Queue: 2 jobs
Job 1
Amino acid sequence: MTEKYQKLASDVLERLEAVSTATLHTALFKKGLRNTYIQGASRVNSQKVKMVGQAFTLRYIPAREDLDTVAAFKDPEHPQRLAVETVPAGMIMVSDCRQDASAASAGSILLARLETRQCGGFVSDAGIRDFDTAMDMAMPIFCTKPSAPTNLTKHHGVDLEVPIGCGGVAVYPGDVLVGDGDGVIVIPLALADEISQEALRMERFEDYVIGKVRTGSPVIGLYPPNETAQDEYNKFIAG
């Protein structure tokens, strides 16, 4: 783990693994943060994998024909290759491709290498190639769509571990990402503990609400709760 930011505490990690991105978005919204959902990036995996980890960022600019040739990949310092070989285990590689999915941001070889190195996940606001292979991987993968063209046709890697924009959301190195079937939420690291606790409280209440709704209770006055409903819930959780 780089010394630029603090490692996510294990108890915070456990809470985030237990809650949905929908709940996390609402918890962040209640804190005044509106733009936390990475637009366009959805889960590739055929299994219902959950992703929780901290961001390891890669920034691209538009490709240029005299620089971005196949020979560029021979450079051991090529930012994309360097990112794949240096992202710490458990961290999530996040690619800023300017929301241009007309070319891939990774393919089966690089994704397999990330999985072997125990990367916590891969997130991109562009496409990926070898999509069918990626669907069967255990490492969480989120992108916008399948895209056969190599990244060299559109994306020129320039920076690692700098603030980026992914899917219209600011992502700073060390930020916390949570991904599920609804997509990916970005949580500022400084708020992760507070948000994880609030989200867990919210989901416990929502589980209670779903139980009431399924037995015939109307939503009005229950969600959000009026005073009577809140008193009933307080008695319920008190045992």
Job 2
Amino acid sequence: MEFLYDYGLFFAKTLTFVAAVLAVIITGVALASKQKGQKGELQITDLSEQMSDNKTHIEEQLLSEQELKAKHKAEKKAAKEAKKAAKKTPAATEDAVENKVYVVDFKGSIDAKEVTSLRQEITAILGVAQPNDEVFVRLESGGGMVHGYGLAASQLQRLRDKGINLTVSVDKVAASGGYMMACVAPKIIAAPFAIVGSIGVIAQIPNFNRLLKKHDVDFEQMTAGEFKRTVTMFGENTEKGKEKFQQELEETHSLFKEFVSSNRPQLDINKVATGEHWYGSQAFSLNLIDKIQTSDDYLLQLNETKKIISVRYVTKKKLADKIAHGASMALERCLMKLWQQGKGPFLNS
């Protein structure tokens, strides 16, 4: 009898535990289904407030109690005086609008997939920006596929078309497709050792045709159109096909040069469009950039007179997407190391 009682108690506990687990799972599934339609969201951060908080925190650690009291007293007095002045000239304060700086971060991959977030950020800013506001893009990219970076550059062009002040900052690298984006801005700043330039086009492809022949493996490829496929990984590439492919690269390079020249007419395009890259101080002397300065110094300077706001569009990722993103980032880091060693990625616009 005691055995049956213990067994019943154990069964009841087990059933309760299973029911609780099922309830959690069902709740999770319900929440996930509600969020299916929400692919991402805008994250707005007041960077001016962050800077102010950091400054206050440091002062509280460094100043004595008496010094802090004196500082707070002076701040209250200044606030009261400002309030009185505002009451005396209400018309001026109504017309006065605080200028804002919208900060956008773009860290580009080879396929420039980050343009999905960029277009959302630009669209959001265009909806609220005033004529005297500014958009500040912190750009980092070693380049990538032509069509991806062409679209990213077009997103920045939307700001210029609407008459919004645009500045691009390069702290680390804006090369090739990255520079294609940067040159859209009327003002480009860069750190002294930031990598800038690389106005060139490259494409690399392995060919396994001889290996297949060695092992008596046939490769069949059917196309319609003489130049539907110029070079392949497995077929035997002809001189005519390679010449056509080289011609396509030259045409892309010409378009790249025209695009840069139209945005920065002060450049000697033939001198800088050799595929070479330069460090910030060298790029300044070549007119590739307008000023040697880090993004931190630029924002700190603007914070004295303007309100600085970070705008970031964040997409929600599934577990499989997170794993794929991690693998992609690892691959890109390897390719970037190769590029920095002068070997270059397999495709760089």
